[in-house]
Amino acid sequence: MNAEQQRPTWRVDVAGLAVDLPIVPIKPDFAISLMMVIDMGVRFGAHAGAALAERLAPLKPDVVVGPATLGIPVAIEVSRALGLDRYVVVQKSPKIHLADALVETITSITSKGEQRLLLDRAALPLLAGKRAVVVDDVVASGSSLKGVLNLVRAAGAEVAGVGVVLTEAHEWKETLGADAALVHGLGHIPQFRPGAAGWEPIPETE
Q1: Separation CA 40–CA 46 (nearest Å)
Q2: How far apart are CA 85 and CA 87, in angstroms?
Q3: Global confidence as pTM
Q4: 191: closest CA among 180, 199, 201?
Q5: How many CB atoms lie within 10 A of CB 170?
Q6: Does the N-terminal peptide bond of residue 105 adopt cis geometry, omega within 30 degrees of 0?
Q7: Cβ-count burial of 166 within 10 angstroms (0-12 exposed, 13-18 middle, 19+ buried)?
Q8: Measuring CA to CA, which residue among 185, 186, 188, 184 is closest to residue 59?
Q9: Where in 76-180 does DSSP place strands (E)?
Q10: Do the beta carbons of residue 65 and residue 88 sit within 8 Å?
Q11: What letters, b where the CB count within 10 A reaches 16 and e where it falls short, cover 109-135?
């Protein structure tokens, strides 16, 4: 049996589709189940995008916003399913055209240290006065999502709702405050601690 077969996994229902996610240690006494949406295949992306679009369509959004990197395929598929053409990407790495971008500084559970979220000023006309929905793959701490919401509002858009493929634990609710009520998720994953038989869910994160 190879190492990939031996890796523990956690099964989650994503809008009716069963998915086995690898459990990945972050620290010796703490692990998460990792979903790399860019490695999940075209069918999964289309399935998740259509399911999120079904939940977000009643909000009558004008534009979809997604953070790089893993939020980009979600934004594309949700936009496609909603019948929208243009979408807005919030970047996480500096590029030559982002020298005067709107900026938010955040921390993430899967990234070390601080990161900057960058919104290209060229995207402002797509957002100003519009109803926007923000989408991403997973919300865990909520820091990244809160930063994106701040940028979208700074651009003059109304945040009509938020769609995520998975919610992870519950820390994000405290981080987002009243905005937590805007979140629509397709499934939920806990966080993990060592147990007698290997990694087990932390009860308060289920």
Answers
A1: 10
A2: 7
A3: 0.92
A4: 201
A5: 16
A6: no
A7: buried
A8: 184
A9: 87-90, 102-108, 111-119, 131-139, 158-168
A10: yes
A11: beeeeebebbbbeebeebbeebebbbb
Length of the chain: 206
Side-chain-side CA neighbours of residue 162 (13 Å)? 28
- Burial per residue of 20-42, b for 16 or more beta-carbon CB atoms within 10 angstroms, e otherwise: ebebeeeeeeebbbbbebeebee
Mean pLDDT, 10 residues at a time, over the chain (206 residues)? 69 98 96 96 97 98 96 98 97 82 79 82 97 98 96 98 98 98 98 96 98
Tokens of 74: 């979600």
DSSP 177: G
Q: Are 101 and 154 in contact (CB under 8 A)?
A: no
- Cα(7)–Cα(25) distance, rounded to whole angstroms? 11
DSSP E strand stretches across 8-130: 9-14, 17-27, 30-33, 63-67, 87-90, 102-108, 111-119
Alpha carbons within 13 A on the beta-carbon side of 105: 2
